Protein: Acyl-CoA dehydrogenase family protein
Organism: Nocardia jiangxiensis
Amino acid sequence: MIDDATGDEIGAVLRTNADKTEQGGRPAAESLEALRDDGLFGLRTPSEYGGGWASVETVARCLTRLGRACPSSAWVAGTCLTAKNIAVRNHLEGDLFADPDALWCGSGIPGGQGERGVGGVRISGRWPNVSGCEDAVWALLGVVVDGVFSFAVVPVADLAVERTWHMAGMCGTGSQTVVADDLLVPAERVATAAPFTTADLMLYSMTVLSPVVGATLGALDAVGAMFASDRKPFMTTYTRMGESAGARQWLAEATHLAHRAETTMLAVAHDTDTTELSENDSPRLHMDLADAARTCRSAMERMLDLHGASGFDTANALQRFWRDVAVGSRHPHLNPYLAVERYGTALTV
């Protein structure tokens, strides 16, 4: 877990470089260095290899804190721990964890085909939306090998990267497309995919929700700074924002919604760590996480109303947080209508 002093230091680095991250379309070198130096890329490296193998609740708290400063950087750290977790669950370890703090990327989409032969498995394919791929050392990729869904771990240096990530939000995640062309992968770095447990799925959902919750809290920081300034509601006789009862109510509602989303997320994380979850628990928990994501969007709407049109100035951090929440909260792990559909089905079976 990041202590307060360390968290403040990392947050300051990420916050300072957030615009650089967005403009470059990938985390700034200074941000990556800070995350690596403080073990954030090792959150889900097994302890026997020198990593933290952090609990789900610790992961959620750490990524939320990072997201409060730079959601894109937090997202890349989350992708790293997801890829490492899948590798461990599929017994793809050993020398792959020689550097416990190496940055990993990956995709669970079966975007490639593989064929076993002399010397290993030859794979070819395309995997879109691979966050952090331009800076990662290893890539964990879903691939169908001889008709069986599997995972392969390959050096990113052996892949081509196509810059296909052109999004309004989470711009700095560097979620480009990686391409393999008849790449020979040693047999020990390819494994038939093990079924995902409910606990695994909660962890993976947490890695996308936590940066979104962090972004919402970061936006709340920006709005709080506005209330502490001499800014006043335009075209009124008020001398400060806090003099307006309506503004105070909107601030209270935004704060309540942001904290409710965080509380809901942490409750699911705690249950994942402390309870033997079954497949039957998954619809309910996914419903909670999808609801938390929607709550973040509701909080953002109130904050944007408070700030007015100036909140959309490209120099204002609020609009970046808004775009990151809008895009990140719509990740497939947080799909609200499918969450409702699955929960409703579970309740009527």
